[in-house]
Amino acid sequence: MNTPPSPYGAEHTDGSSIRLGALVPLTRPGWVEAGRHLLAGLDLAVREVNDAGGIDGRPLELVVRDTAADPERAAAAVDELAHLGVAAVVGEYHSVVARAAAARADALGVPFLCSSAVLDALTEEPTEWVARLAPAQSYGWRIYADFLLHAGRRRIAVATQPSVYWASGTRVLRDHLAPRGGTVLELDATLTPEALCDALVDHGATALLLLVGHPEPAVPIVRAVRGDRRLAEILIGAPAGQPEFAEWAAALGEDGAGIPFLRYLPERLGPLGERVGKELRERLGEAPSFVAFEGWDTVAVLAAVLRSHGTDRAAIAESWPRVAVEGTRRTIQFSRTPGISVWQWAWTPIQVVDRDPAEPDRFRILHAG
Tens digit of pLDDT per residue, the chain (369 long)? Predict the structure, then answer.
């Protein structure tokens, strides 16, 4: 691994600290802005634990490795972090990358608390070593499909790229919509934006969902659809959350508003969430995304586990079903959920939101799960 040591404090070499390995996309083609928010949440929580005396007097230490959205790089990072003696591995945003990390953590016997990735099949077989905070894709995307139905959108087109994650999302949408009179048409995102617009018109689509990367090809697709008078009534959606981040608004301006996406926050944060949100805003220089809250909650869970069960890796993994930790968005507990191979928090609050066309920096809640 060529990733430099964490810039978030010197790495201890005398054994005094308790190390947590952190997997974060910090360079492209990873979603860098999501990685920045995730790391801000992780780092804030670590600093708060240490300011309060650490874990039985020992400081927590984040050992950060950049995955750059590369599954092989993530698997190699888990190997390296295991060799460095981390008590557990945390983080990751990209589902396909998290799946590679989870497989390696399971093989090595290293606890992995996944912060943000939603792919249902995070591991091929059930494992005791992996737990997850983010909701499974099949759960969150069904809520998004319900939103589409409530909005009267039943002829759905998806612009999609080859990926296990996008294919899984398409399947969730189709399986949920079909019995309710909805249809899903797949359009190859390699089509020119103009050809894609023609296909939407020919199909009579009432919604286009962007199951594609950001900024390419999402941004040019949005611009083309917004500029096509034939598609003035179509709903553009992005269930994976591309419009959550300021980079989206900066790239698209008004064209990026009114595009609903999934966000894992309650309608109102409690006192803890409000306090953490304020701290995160100061660190980030902008409103924190739900991904930043996921980062903070991840460390809060592991800090509680380390205080109760120590740093032995097997003891940490055995503790997942006994976790009950106040998080920023609700009490966090893990359980075995049908169809999910890892210990799952079921479920974080889920909203469908968009950027208000009248005020693109403000989010509107359109639907709640």
Answer: 333 333 443 344 455 999 999 999 999 999 999 999 999 999 999 999 999 999 999 999 999 999 999 999 999 999 999 999 999 999 999 999 999 999 999 999 999 999 999 999 999 999 999 999 999 999 999 999 999 999 999 999 999 999 999 999 999 999 999 999 999 999 999 999 999 999 999 999 999 999 999 899 999 999 999 999 999 999 999 999 999 999 999 999 999 999 999 999 999 999 999 999 999 999 999 999 999 999 999 999 999 999 999 999 999 999 999 999 999 999 999 999 999 999 999 999 999 999 999 999 999 999 998
| Residue at 74: amino acid letter | A
| Distant-in-sequence, close-in-space partners of 151: CB < 8 Å, separation ≥ 6 | 235, 366
Number of Cβ within 10 Å of residue 51's Cβ equals 9
The tokens for 326 are: 């106040």
> What's at 335, amino acid-wise?
S
Q: How far apart are CA 100 and CA 70, in angstroms?
A: 9
Starting at the edge strand found earlier in the chain, the sheet holding 183-188 runs: 183-188, 155-160, 207-211, 235-237
CA-nearest of 295, 329, 299 to 48 is: 299
Q: In whole angstroms, give the CA distance from residue 264 to residue 352.
A: 9
Q: Which of 32, 91, 97, 101 is nearest to 69 (CA)?
A: 97
DSSP state of 234: P
DSSP H helices in the chain: 32-51, 71-84, 95-108, 137-150, 164-177, 193-203, 218-226, 246-252, 271-284, 290-309, 313-318
- Give Cα 353 distance to the centre of its chain: 15
